[in-house]
Design goal:
mainly alpha; 83 residues; transmembrane
């Protein structure tokens, strides 16, 4: 969701989105941990190769994607004094 769509939500809907974002943070953290484990195993088992770069790319995308969405939601929650 972008800033305009978030601004149009009611307070209750905004709190629901905050709960969804919290669940998404936990899932992203688990996926990133798994991908880092795959990378570590791959490096220890053989060497640094092309198949090691694929999980590294996905971990990078998960980290960058979650950062921007959460900032917008947190700012809007602070403006409305919901947290």
């Amino acid at each position: 969701m972008n800033q305009n769509e978030l601004a149009q939500l009611t307070d209750e809907e905004l709190l629901q989105e905050a709960k969804k974002m919290k669940s998404a943070k936990i899932m992203n953290a688990a996926l990133i941990g798994f991908l880092i484990g795959v990378i570590f195993y791959s490096v220890m088992k053989s060497s640094f190769g092309f198949l090691t770069l694929i999980p590294l790319f996905f971990a990078y995308k998960l980290i960058n994607n979650s950062k921007y969405n959460n900032q917008e939601l947190e700012n809007l929650l602070k403006e409305r004094n919901l947290r």
